[in-house]
């Protein structure tokens, strides 16, 4: 099983839509449901930071994505490194792919001189919350149904 993580290209849009739908199938909330909205989301993520948008492939098969943003300014007006999105095909979860995608994102954050990483996750998305905690993120706030998590980078 050979894992490769590369930058996303605009032509990955349909793969993004298909894997997004599968990855979020068991979650009833915190997601876009129409293909049109998911495509627009892909375009927004790509515009935000194309250098920080990654796709994971196992033996050349696309299995997951991670989209981050080195240009983000948070709700308090502070420039932070944001992780907007990460997901993995259900049949490939639990194999370290999500972790590898986040590590790639954090490596990228360091090249941009960012020290604070911030993300928002659904309050009942326990799987993702536990995943982020395992990777060193801490819950630091809440807004509506969203939990804010941050991690400090030593780079
Ligand atoms: N409970 C406890 N720990 C977990 C869980 C869980 N449910 N899932 C993963 N972990 C731990 C693993 O044990 C592993 O720890 P280890 O390094 O000590 O072995 C670590 O987290 C990394 O696990 P991976 O196998 O790399 O994670 P995976 O590839 O399964 O991806 C993900 C996790 C991305 C959350 C996946 O389950 C998914 O796609 N979920 C649906 C989409 C989603 O909710 N995305 C996040 C939305 S929030 C946002 O994107 C900002």
Task: Describe what this molecule looks like in 3D.
It is a single chain. The chain has helices at residues 13-23, 35-48, 97-111, 126-134, and strands spanning 3-7, 53-58, 61-73, 79-88, 116-122, 138-143, 146-152. The chain starts with a strand and ends with a strand. The model has no long low-confidence stretch (mean pLDDT 97). A hairpin with a 5-residue loop joins strand 3 (61-73) and strand 4 (79-88). Helix 1 packs across helix 2. The protein is 32% helix and 35% strand. It is of the alpha+beta class. The structure holds acetyl coenzyme *A (ACO). The site of acetyl coenzyme *A (ACO) has 22 residues, from strand 4, helix 3, strand 5 and helix 4.
């Amino acid at each position: 099983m050979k894992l490769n993580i590369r930058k996303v290209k605009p032509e990955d849009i349909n793969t993004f839509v298909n894997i997004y739908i599968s990855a979020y199938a068991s979650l009833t909330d915190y997601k876009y449901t129409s293909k049109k909205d998911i495509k627009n989301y892909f375009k927004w993520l790509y515009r935000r930071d194309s250098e920080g948008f990654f796709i994971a492939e196992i033996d050349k098969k696309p299995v997951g994505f991670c989209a981050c943003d080195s240009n983000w300014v948070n709700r308090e007006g502070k420039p932070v490194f944001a992780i907007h999105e990460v997901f993995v095909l259900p049949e490939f979860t639990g194999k370290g792919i999500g972790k590898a995608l986040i590590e790639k994102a954090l490596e990228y954050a360091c090249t941009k001189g960012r020290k604070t990483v911030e993300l928002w996750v659904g309050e009942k998305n326990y799987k993702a919350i536990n995943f982020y905690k395992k990777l060193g993120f801490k819950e630091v706030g809440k807004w509506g149904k969203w939990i804010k998590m941050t991690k400090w980078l030593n780079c």
